Amino acid sequence: MHLETWPTRHYSEEDLRDTFDFMADRYVDQTVVVSRGHYPEWMNQVASLVKAWKPKSVADIGCGPGYLLRRLREAMPEADILGVDYSQKMLAQVPDDIPTAHEHLDDWADSEEKTYDALIMTFVLRDQPDPVQSLTKLQKRLAKNGHLVILETQTPDGWRHWGFNLYFHHWMPWWGRRVLAPDWHGAQDMAPYRWLSDSHRQWRESQSLPEVLRQLGYDGMESHRPPTDVVMLWSARATGLEAKA
Prior knowledge:
- This protein is α/β, with parallel strands linked by helices and 245 residues long.
- The relative contact order is 0.16.
- It has a single domain (3-237), classed as Rossmann fold (3-Layer(aba) Sandwich).
- α3 (39-52) runs parallel beside α4, α6 (105-111) runs parallel beside α7 (131-138) and α8 (160-180) packs antiparallel against α9 (192-202).
- Strands 3-2-1-4-5-7-6 form a 7-stranded mixed β-sheet, sandwiched between helices.
- The chain has helices at residues 13-23, 27-34, 39-52, 67-75, 88-91, 105-111, 131-138, 160-180, 192-202, 209-216; strands at 57-61, 80-85, 100-102, 116-122, 142-153, 219-223, 231-237.
């Protein structure tokens, strides 16, 4: 696996921000629906995983309207928790007592001065123009021995593969256009559920994520979901990175 083969995407970041601005007040409710009720389970698993490491500082990158931030605050009331997102309308949904940063992932990684014991990305990495660049930049924001957590979609192994493709690439875009987001008036290739389907289709090298992380200098990669699932959950440590303690 060579880093150069990992997918990069070409799109207007302003257009994508418009898509997420549009989804801000319906994101959680509709994600619960399209995940067939599994979204809270996934977020609770991420919060429990991070809590077990007893971090003093956590950044949820691409935090959206703050569903996971609320779970993290409940699980770790003493931790320093930050939400990062480049959709201002998403951040407007975050509770006032949780600090936020209105920046794109890569810009935040370049401008932030602190390091964090845990960095979390849930359904964010596949939307980045250059995922390898984003993972590289985040190394600067991880404290030594800190953890990176990535939750993403994956095409499952086995018999579920066919059902997933039918649902994700055929039924869901139609459902989004006709029922979930019929009031979307932007470009059709940026329509929320068309984008979701297309972004996963572009995420073709997702199974090689642990090898990519290893090549970038992360270690301690661990999978927390089976390959037959529709989501992957990986964690990696910053040991060996030239991160500030």
